[in-house]
Amino acid sequence: MKICSICKKISGTGSDHLDCIEKRRIELEDGGLKEKLVEKLDLEKDPNDMGKEIKALLGHMNREKEKKS
Q: How many beta carbons lie within 10 A of that of residue 38, not counting itself?
């Protein structure tokens, strides 16, 4: 028996829990995806220079948000 290094609970297998390992992998992937998305869109350089598809999507999301409020 060993303590899982991720959730700090007892592990009967002697290693980290498989679901804890998978959860950590997904969290790390999501973090990398968010960083890559900003780089791909180049939003840090000039936010006014977005593609028309992105502008339309953001406009739609803002309208939906205003409807709910």
A: 10
d(CA 22, CA 5): 13
Burial class (CB in 10 A: 0-12, 13-18, 19+), 41: middle
Supply the mean pLDDT for the chain: 78
Helix, strand or coil for residue 10?
A: strand
Asked if 20 and 6 count as a contact pair (C-beta separation under 8 A), the reply is yes
- pLDDT per position as a tens digit, 1-33: 789 998 999 988 889 999 999 988 887 777 666
**Token pair listed for 55:** 């502008």
Tokens 């598809």, residue located: 53
Residue 44 DSSP one-character state: T
